[in-house]
Structures are given as structure tokens and as C-alpha cells.
UniProtKB/TrEMBL annotation:
Its main location: membrane. The keyword Transmembrane applies. Residues 14-409 form the Major facilitator superfamily (MFS) profile domain. It is a multi-pass membrane protein. It is found in: Cell membrane. The chain crosses the membrane at residues 16-41, 53-73, 93-115, 146-168, 180-200, 221-243, 263-285, 297-314, 387-406. InterPro entries: MFS, MFS_4, MFS_dom, MFS_trans_sf, Tet-R_TetA/multi-R_MdtG-like. Keywords: Cell membrane, Membrane, Transmembrane, Transmembrane helix, Transport. This is MFS transporter. It comes from Lactobacillus xylocopicola.
Length: 412
């Protein structure tokens, strides 16, 4: 781990390459996934229940595979380096996403999505790579900037995907309108693979399997293992909070304006505003994190997020909801980046890959848990209850951080 504030040679080229790679990864995912149910519906004579089931599986299997396989890739990253993991993830994603564009049926898509999830992890490995190359004094800013890459991609992706699907759909037919974005995303991921291969330099000495310490031993040697575990749980809960709203945003907006003909546009604005807030605030919060420490930023972000969910549950205006979600995006810029910065500052270099891979597993579990939580609660109760429950989740997370962050030196 680097203690000097001086950036190593070639750092900026690696940073911009990895940032762009994370942006394309986020954009590619959001450019194709929002339309997966429409794609599946056009691939066969499926019932409404089958379309919902297949679409849910196509979404969930990726994260389930990530949660299962990530620790293995983390072990390999600590022996071979994070650059190789970025190459592996981007290369396989280029192949699987392109192949998905040729899907003849729903089962084919689900299988490819599972394979993609098993070999994914570009953003997490890119973040771990650049974190290992960055002096501690700048870790907060770098973690925040890396988060903006995926966030920006997620903002651009749905708009670009919708435009491409409509354009090619009108030209080649509806099914090909959904296929073309997969081909374009696959090509872009190939460019990410080439950039990660030839433009990124990692200062890493390969470690043999025999020389590696067992994970159990490493956990015992960490300065504050309870804090590391608390960050894993924080990643899970914050990701669950982010994902719990996604399945019901458009339905919640529709319930607020049932007679409107502009629901899709308004729902799109409401869905996009958190990402915009994160983008605008990430740099400033990242610098502040480097000044006062990530744990303080994390506590403020969790409290602010929990409070913001209260008026979200009470409002009857989609525009007020959009404004509140914009503020939530600002609070989010102080959650996951802060948790990742704590991990960066408290993890020895020889176990970076494994620690970040376990964090990715918890994030994947959070994605599945959050989506299921939002859908289930809204089905059993109402949309507002989802917001109440999510706010309570962040409040419980705040209490957990207070409990396990008593050693202030761990955040230095």
C-alpha cells in the first residue's frame, strides 16, 4: 500500500482507462437489461407469468452467480493481479453479451446471463486495482470517482438503449431492435478488454498458491476485523436499499398520476435523478472524505438517506419524489464509496483481491435481496411501505456502523 501522496508513473492513463471501462460496463448493462422482458416476449409465445418469471430469472441469476464465484476470483486476483481479472471480466462479457443478441429463446438468455455473472466483476476489480495504486491520502476521491463511472453509465444506458431499440426496430423489426444493443455493447466491451490489456499497468508481483496466507489467517491479522465485516454488511444493505425501489418506481409514479399519458417520461426522470445527484456530488464528497475520514462521511450518508425515505413515502407528487431522490443520490455518494475506502485503508495489499471479491459477493446478494424485498413488500402491502422499510434498513445500518467503528484509528 502506498503511503506517499505522489502518484506513480502511468497512474493517470490507468485511471482514465479503468474509469472509461467502468462507464461502458455500467452503460452496457443498463442499455440492455431494462428491455430484457420485451426481448423475451418477442422470442416466443410466452404467457404473462412466464415472461415475468423468465425476466426475473435473467436479472437474478447474474447476481447469484457473482455471489457464488467472486471469492474464487478474489483468490486468483491476489495471486495473479487485478489487471488479469479486468481482462477476464471484460473479455467474457464481450462474448456473452454478443451471444445474447443471437438468443433464440428465453432459456438461452438465462444461461448466458448466468455465465456472464460467473465471469463478471470488471467494476470491482478495476476499483481494487486503482485503489492499490493510489496513495492513501487520495483514496476517498478516487473511490468516489470510480463510483461515478458506473453511475454515469447507468444514466446514459437506458436512454441510448431506448433510442437504438426504437431506431433499429423501425428499420429491421422489433426483435432485431432489441438484438442490436447487445451487439453494440459486446463490441464496446471488446474495446474495454483491449484498453485494460494494453493501457493499464499494475505494480504487482505474482504470488504462488503455497505462499498465500489462508483467508482465515488474514482476517485474524486485520487491524479491525469487525469493521471489515461491518463494511461487507453495509455494502449489502446499501445495495439492497438502492435496488428495493427500482422494481416499483414506475408503478409508484403511475399510482400518483393514473390519468396521465406521460407516465413513462416522468418515471424515467424519477429513476434517473439519484444517479444525477451522485454524479454532481461525488467529487466534492470524495475530497471531504480524504479530509475527515470515510467513516464520518458514511454515518452522515446513512442518516441522510434514512431521513429522505420518510417524505418519499408520504408524497403524492412525482416531481417531489424526483427531487427527494436527487438528494438521495447525493447521500449515496457518501455510502458505498465510503465503505470501499474503509476497506482500502484497512486491507493489506496481499489480500486486496479477496477482500474486494467478498465485498462484491455481498453487493450481489444485496441486489437480489433488495429487488425481492421491494417487489414482495409492495405486493403484500403498498408502495409507500417499501420506502418505510428501506429507510429503516439504512437506519439499522447506521446503528451497526456506530457499534463497530469505535476504533477511530481504523479509518485513518
Amino acid at each position: 500500500m502506498k503511503s506517499s501522496a505522489k502518484l506513480p508513473a502511468g497512474w493517470h492513463k490507468a485511471f482514465y482507462t479503468l474509469w472509461l471501462g467502468c462507464f461502458i460496463t455500467g452503460m452496457g448493462y443498463s442499455m440492455t437489461m431494462p428491455f430484457i422482458s420485451l426481448f423475451i416476449a418477442d422470442l416466443g409465445h410466452y404467457s404473462k407469468l412466464q415472461i415475468s418469471l423468465y425476466s426475473g430469472l435473467a436479472f437474478a441469476v447474474t447476481f447469484i452467480a457473482q455471489a457464488i464465484v467472486s471469492p474464487y476470483w478474489g483468490n486468483l486476483a491476489d495471486r495473479k493481479g487485478r489487471k488479469l481479472m479486468c481482462m477476464r471480466a471484460s473479455g467474457v462479457m464481450a462474448l456473452t453479451i454478443t451471444a445474447t443478441g443471437f438468443a433464440p429463446n428465453a432459456i438461452y438468455i438465462i444461461v448466458l446471463r448466468f455465465i456472464q455473472g460467473a465471469f463478471s466483476g470488471y467494476i470491482n476489480n478495476a476499483t481494487a486495482l486503482i485503489a492499490g495504486e493510489t496513495p492513501h491520502q487520495r483514496s476517498g476521491w478516487v473511490m468516489s470517482q470510480m463510483m461515478t463511472a458506473g453511475t454515469a453509465g447507468n444514466l446514459v444506458g437506458p436512454l441510448l438503449g431506448g433510442l437504438l431499440s426504437s431506431f433499429f426496430g423501425n428499420w429491421l423489426g422489433a426483435v432485431w431492435g432489441y438484438r442490436i444493443p447487445f451487439f453494440i455493447t459486446g463490441f464496446l466491451m471488446l474495446l474495454v478488454f483491449l484498453g485494460s490489456t494494453f493501457l493499464v499497468k499494475e505494480e504487482f508481483t505474482p504470488v504462488s498458491r503455497a505462499e498465500m496466507k489462508p483467508m482465515k489467517e488474514i482476517m485474524h491479522t486485520l487491524p479491525n476485523v469487525k469493521l471489515i465485516i461491518a463494511m461487507f454488511v453495509t455494502t449489502l444493505l446499501v445495495q439492497a436499499a438502492n435496488m428495493s425501489i427500482d422494481p416499483i418506481v414506475s408503478l409508484y409514479v403511475k399510482s400518483m398520476m393514473p390519468n396521465s399519458n406521460n407516465i413513462a417520461f416522468v418515471a424515467g426522470v424519477v429513476a434517473a435523478t439519484p444517479g444525477l445527484g451522485t454524479l454532481l456530488a461525488a467529487s466534492k464528497i470524495g475530497h471531504k472524505m480524504d479530509e475527515i475520514g470515510p467513516l464520518k462521511i458514511l454515518r452522515v450518508g446513512l442518516v441522510a438517506g434514512a431521513i429522505l425515505f420518510i417524505p418519499m413515502a408520504l408524497t403524492s407528487s412525482p416531481w417531489v419524489l424526483a427531487a427527494l431522490r436527487f438528494l438521495l443520490g447525493i447521500a449515496s455518494a457518501g455510502m458505498l464509496p465510503a465503505a470501499q475506502t474503509v476497506l482500502t485503508l484497512n486491507t493489506p495489499p496481499e489480500s486486496f483481491g479477496r477482500i474486494f471479491s467478498y465485498n462484491q459477493s455481498f453487493q450481489a446478494i444485496g441486489s437480489v435481496f433488495g429487488s425481492l424485498m421491494g417487489s414482495t413488500i409492495s405486493g403484500l402491502f403498498n408502495y409507500a411501505t417499501v420506502f418505510w422499510t428501506t429507510g429503516l434498513t439504512l437506519l439499522l445500518n447506521f446503528m451497526l456502523i456506530i457499534l463497530f467503528s469505535l476504533r477511530k484509528t481504523a479509518s485513518k
